[in-house]
């Protein structure tokens, strides 16, 4: 069993470099196009579940990616929603880093809490499912999970690209692949996914 994790496609706030957090922004045209290109990786693949954060950008990404896949169950899971960046939402990313270098803007969810809710969610998936699943989440949330399951990521700044593919072992949560896009993702699927 594999857990395929995809960061949602691009939104306008991603494109212009604004902190997005819980803002419920839709995919932009580039985001939709990139999702349609990534979709071919999942054509005719079977998933026991498609699990998505309850924001529009993740739901739209998931539905595009699985248009030609075989999915048994569709679920929204609020535990895998993006980190709440508090008053930084909607502000330039550089401004957030300058004003709050330690990530503690007023109203901001602690990274420790993001890590906790993400690992709880993924441990529940391991218990519930025994076949491949596809999960659509967010950059900071997926990075928090990576840090929780693999200590080597804990010492580095992890930033995932839009539409990137990360793959975990569905039993151990070991990271098999991380932040793959385009040809890298296609090659990994060709080499590892039967």
Explain this structure:
With 194 residues, the protein is α/β, with parallel strands linked by helices. The protein has eight helices and eight strands; from the N terminus they run E-H-H-E-E-H-E-E-H-H-E-H-H-E-E-H. It has helices spanning 12-16, 29-39, 56-65, 93-99, 111-128, 139-149, 151-154, 182-192; strands at residues 2-7, 46-47, 49-52, 70-71, 74-76, 133-137, 165-169, 175-180. Strands 5-3-6-1-7-8 form a six-stranded mixed sheet. It has a two-stranded parallel sheet with strand order 2-4. A hairpin with a 5-residue loop joins strand 7 and strand 8 (175-180). Helix 2 (29-39) packs parallel to helix 3 and helix 5 crosses helix 6 (139-149). The radius of gyration is 16 Å and the shape is globular. It starts with a strand and ends with a helix. The mean pLDDT is 95.
How many β-strand stretches? 8
Write down the overall mean pLDDT. 95
Elements, N to C (H/E): EHHEEHEEHHEHHEEH
Helix content: 25-40%
Proportion of strand residues: 15-25%
Helix and strand composition category: alpha/beta
How do the helices and strands line up, and which of them pair or pack?
Layout: E1 2-7, H1 12-16, H2 29-39, E2 46-47, E3 49-52, H3 56-65, E4 70-71, E5 74-76, H4 93-99, H5 111-128, E6 133-137, H6 139-149, H7 151-154, E7 165-169, E8 175-180, H8 182-192
Parallel strand pairs: 1-6, 2-4, 3-5, 3-6
Antiparallel strand pairs: 1-7, 7-8
């Amino acid at each position: 069993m594999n857990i395929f994790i995809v960061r949602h496609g691009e939104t306008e706030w991603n494109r212009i470099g604004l902190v997005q957090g819980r803002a419920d922004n839709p995919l932009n045209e580039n985001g939709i196009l990139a999702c349609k290109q990534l979709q071919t990786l999942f054509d005719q693949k079977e998933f026991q579940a498609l699990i998505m954060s309850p924001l529009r950008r993740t739901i739209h990404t998931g539905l595009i990616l699985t248009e030609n896949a075989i999915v048994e169950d569709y679920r929204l899971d609020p535990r895998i929603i993006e980190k709440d960046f508090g008053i930084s939402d909607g502000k330039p990313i550089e401004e957030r880093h300058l004003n709050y270098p330690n990530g503690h803007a007023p109203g901001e969810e602690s990274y420790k809490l993001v890590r906790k809710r993400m690992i709880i969610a993924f441990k529940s998936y391991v218990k519930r499912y025994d076949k491949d699943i596809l999960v659509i989440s967010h950059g900071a949330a997926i990075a928090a999970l990576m840090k929780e399951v693999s200590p080597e990521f804990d010492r580095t700044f992890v930033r995932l690209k839009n539409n990137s593919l990360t793959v975990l072992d569905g039993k151990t949560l070991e990271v098999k692949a991380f932040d793959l896009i385009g040809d890298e993702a296609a090659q990994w699927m060709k080499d590892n996914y039967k």
